[in-house]
Amino acid sequence: MKRNIVIATVAAAALITGGTATALATTGDDDSAAKKSSVQLKDHDRKDDDRRSDDDGKDDGRDDAAENTAEAKAAKVTAADAIKAALAKTPGTAVSAELDEEDGGLVWGVDILKGTTWHNVEVDPGTGKVLGTWVDKDDDGDDAADAARVNSALKGSATTAGDAARTAAAKGTVTSVDLDDDGKAGAWGVETTGAKGAESEWHVDLKTGKVTADRTDHADGQDDRDGQDGQDGQDNDGSDD
């Protein structure tokens, strides 16, 4: 249920077209512009182009794993601490947190629900300081409906987004926490990065805090492997003819 918006992109589009940035609005209490993150990323795209010598996907996988590892190590501030810092700046209910790139820098984007108003708070993953905050308005005017759905999903919950991040940290470096309210059994969806860059997805129960592997994620991975095996089989059959 991530509601993060690339603020600079929306604003730039509005200036180019002569329109207004209706996707968001800022209030007097919010920072008008985000400060630059202390964690600046290297240009991975150029390296990927240099290393990519064929289309078998092997180089892409190694590059992605290396990039995931680098970003996870660069984030000295954990997801749980980023959520804590965001809530200290903008009290409310943290609904999601994601480690992401913003204008060449690494940031924690935290979505906070306060009443029926959504706020996006960016936290520096190197220092834990808040870089900027914005009121986040849905183009479709579904803010109230989204808020009602979140409140319904979290009713009776004993596990917060911060709790989920701390619990799932035993599985790897947490890079994303998001309320999963699509299924009947509510849970926090958490993504982690392992020591070698492998990404995994987990569910943290809203009431018990129990961590379980995301079966959908594992099933998708198995489908990919089955598809690759099938492709290999077709190639082998073709070579035998």
Explain what the structure shows.
The chain contains seven helices and nine strands; from the N terminus they run αβαααββββααββββα. With 241 residues, it is of the alpha+beta class. It has a nine-stranded antiparallel β-sheet with strand order 1-5-4-3-2-6-7-8-9. Helix 4 (79-89) packs antiparallel against helix 6 (161-168). The termini are far apart. 29% of the residues are buried. The model is unreliable at 4-29, 44-54 and 218-241 (pLDDT under 50).
Defining traits:
241 residues; alpha+beta; nine-stranded antiparallel β-sheet; 7 helices; 9 strands; 39% helix; disordered C terminus
Average pLDDT confidence is 77
Which consecutive residue ranges, at least 5 long each, have pLDDT under 50?
Answer: 4-29, 44-54, 218-241
Profile the largest sheet: 9 strands, antiparallel
Shape: globular
In order across it, which strands form the biggest sheet? 1-5-4-3-2-6-7-8-9
Our Rg estimate from Cα atoms comes to 20 Å
Number of strands: 9
Query: What assembly state would you assign to the polypeptide chains in this entry?
Result: single chain
Give a summary of the structure in a few sentences.
With 241 residues, this protein is an alpha+beta fold. Helices cover 39% and strands 25% of the residues. The protein has 7 helices and 9 strands; from the N terminus they run αβαααββββααββββα.
Helix-strand blueprint:
Blueprint: H1 7-17, E1 24-25, H2 44-51, H3 58-74, H4 79-89, E2 93-102, E3 105-114, E4 117-123, E5 130-136, H5 143-154, H6 161-168, E6 173-180, E7 187-193, E8 199-205, E9 211-213, H7 215-240
Helix pairs in contact: 2-3, 4-6
